[in-house]
Structures are given as structure tokens and as C-alpha cells.
Amino acid sequence: MALPTPSSIDDLRRFVESERSARGRDRMGERTLAVLVDMLARPGPAAVQSISELAAHNGVDPSTLTRLGKRLGFNGFAPLQDVFRRHVSDTQPFYSARVSDLVSNPGVSSVTSALQQLARNECQKILAAASSLDERKVGEAVAQLIKAKNVYVLGLRGTYSVSHFFGTFLGTLRDSVTVLGGPGFPIASELARIKKDDLLVAISYRPYTRTVVRAVELIKAEGTPVLSLTDAGSAIELAPKQGVTIAVDQPYYFDSALAQFFAAEAILMAVARRLGPKAMLTIQRREAFNKALDIEIS
């Protein structure tokens, strides 16, 4: 009899025990089972590493992890990884688990090899993000960013860097863009300025910032559209009538951030192309003020 889809680490451990005692053609292959055993032995890395990183660690193709997820009753790898993410969230600090795996990685023997591995991992994540971005949703996001009377961009803590990047360059393409959460600006007062014909761009990746999650809930309740840049199954994922979610299902930390910036770049590029000459006029006006104030050094 087939076991129900696992919902916890304990369920996955019971599945491994069942497979080890099973016989016959329906038994999971040893190599695939070994991947699951490794993930259970390293729940921290299993929760935060990309599918490519986990596959490389186990010496298998990423498709093996996708098949593993489906074999367990999920529709792919991401729902299986969510089991580990919930477990780590409940039992282990995200940052400690992430750094612990980095400093204890036996496959990195020098600064050069560490840099090369980081470059390979980030390239794989960018390619994965590029292939997973929903062109229709990007188009909907662009339409919202152009239509809104005012655009407010909110990302706090580690993701403030993404929000500042996105908001700053969006402000060179269209008028009335404000990056929220700067020093000396209380969030409550900033959010109170947002009206129904505006747009809130909310940015948060696991582990989510409670203030951003709450802000999205409040703005949705006001009937104002929201564009969220986040990961799959996010706390700020939106229903279709509430706005648009652009998901990049990659861990976000100091060793894993380029995929999220790539998604922001892709949206900005699409906005520029959609605005066309109008974007050029906005940029030229900004450049004229930069020159008059002697801000930039060539």
C-alpha cells in the first residue's frame, strides 16, 4: 500500500525505513534513496541549497531530485524541499545553518576553488531563474508598474538592497517611485500614504520579514494592488485579484543573491522596453539634473 505524501521529516524517515525493507519492482532506486538519506542527514543545507547544489553534492543530475519529489507524491522537488524548510524554520536558525554548511564544506580546499564553486553555483541559479520566470506574469507586473500613479517599494533587512536597487532604477524610467524603509521614516506613516491607484512592490525571501508580510496584508485589505518579488510558496504570495507574484525559488543570502537581482533586472528591462521613448525622456531629465548638480564623476 502506498504511503501518504510526507508532511514532516519524521514521515520522510519512515519512508526511508519502509523502502529499505521493501522488495520488488516498485522499490526506489538505491541512488535516489541515497539522495534522500543525505538530505535527512543535512536538513539545513537541504532546506536552503538550490536543486543544482544538492544534485552536485550527491553526484547526480538535478532531474534525479525532481523524480524523488514525484516518487514521494509531490509535483516536483520544491514541495519536498518545503518540508525541510519548515523543519529548519521550527528547529534551526536559518543563518547559522547556512554558514555552518559553508564553513564545513570539505570540497573547498582554497580561496580560488571556493570562488570558482561560488561562480558556478550562482550561474546555475541565474539560469534556473531565467527558465522559471513566467513571461505572462512579468508582463502583468510591467503593466502594473506603468499604470500605477505612485509606486512604493518595500524590502527590509537583507532584501533592502534589492528594493533600493529596484526602486532607484525604476525611478529613472518613470516618475513617482519611492523606496520605503529608509532611516528616519516610520513604516506606518509611509504605508498610510499609499492609495488605491498606487502600487506596493513588496520584496522578501525566506526567512520572511514580519513587517513586510504584515504590510502586504494591510495594503491588500485597502484594495491596493501589490507586486511581490519573493520565492515559491511565500508568505507574501498573492491571489490573482490581489496583484502579481514573481517567484525566484532560490535561497537568498550573501552567497546566493544574484538570481534575485536578475529577476529585478529582467522586470526593469521589460519596463524600459514597454515605455520606450517615454523612458528616455525621464532618464534625460534626471541626467540633466545630475549634470547641473555635478553629482557624477566620469
TrEMBL record:
The reply on keyword Repeat is no
The organism's place on the tree of life at top rank: Bacteria
PROSITE patterns given in the database record: HTH_RPIR, SIS
What InterPro entries does UniProt report for this protein, alphabetically?
A: Homeodomain-like_sf, HTH_RpiR, RpiR-like, RpiR-like_SIS, SIS_dom, SIS_dom_sf, WH-like_DNA-bd_sf
Keywords attached to this entry:
DNA-binding, Glycolysis, Transcription, Transcription regulation
Q: Name one Pfam family in it.
A: SIS
Ranges of residues in domain SIS: 141-277
Gene Ontology terms for molecular function: carbohydrate derivative binding; DNA binding; DNA-binding transcription factor activity
**Does the keyword Transcription feature in the UniProt annotation?**
yes
Instruction: Please report the stretch or stretches of sequence annotated as the HTH rpiR-type domain.
Output: 15-91
Kindly list the biological process annotations in GO that this record carries: glycolytic process
Q: Which PANTHER family match?
A: GLUCOKINASE, RPIR-FAMILY TRANSCRIPTIONAL REGULATOR
Protein's UniProt name: MurR/RpiR family transcriptional regulator
